[in-house]
Amino acid sequence: MEQQNINATAEAKKIPGFLKVLCILSFVGIGFSVIFGIWDIISFQAQIDSLKMLAGFTGELGSSIDSLIKWGIVDYIITIVSALVCLAGVLMMWKLKKTGFYIYLVGEIAPAIASFALLGGFGALGTFAMIIGLIFPIAFIIMYALNLKHMS
């Protein structure tokens, strides 16, 4: 009788397949975010030099490039920290804890807000790039929200 109760409890706590796939995809995406964030910090000076060279052809740096020079490293650090916040949230959701969703939500939204605040307006092209860059985070937020019913 006691063995049946243990099996029933284990079965009730089993992670649904769709949520498991989302978490695994998130683990992979978070890994890439951290790796590319570190790479961006390491290669920051080369990025700035390239932008200055391109700006040299037009004759002006522009406020977006000035903001990137001033705040780029901070923005990359925020991106890495946000990815680690997302990791904490995904690990909690893997354990079927609803709190993990809200932590994940903060980790996904914070980099976009920080980039906009630190780097200023992006112009039409930058705004379009930011919208495209938010497609996957918004899609994952929606898909995780659909799985909140499995979390406690």
Task: Supply database-style keywords.
elongated; 84% helix; 152 residues; single chain; mainly alpha; 7 helices
Question: How would you sum up this structure, described in words?
Answer:
- This protein is mainly α and 152 residues long.
- The chain has one domain.
- It is 84% helix and 0% strand.
- The protein has seven helices and no strands.
- The longest helix is centred in the middle third of the chain and has 32 residues.
- The two termini are 26 Å apart.
The number of helical runs is 7
Q: Looking at the chains present, what oligomeric state does this protein adopt?
A: single chain
What count of structural domains? 1
Number of strands: 0
Question: Looking at the structure, what is the overall shape?
Answer: elongated
Unreliable stretches covering 5 or more consecutive residues: 7-11
Helix and strand run: HHHHHHH
Averaged pLDDT, please?
84
Return Rg in Å.
20 Å
- Measured between the Cα atoms of the first and last residue, the distance is 26 Å
Name the structural class.
mainly alpha
Percent in helix: over 70%
Strand content: under 5%
- Main β-sheet, in a few words? none
Give the arrangement of secondary structure elements.
Layout: H1 2-12, H2 17-42, H3 44-58, H4 63-94, H5 99-119, H6 123-133, H7 135-146
What is shown here, in short?
By secondary structure, the chain is mainly alpha-helical.
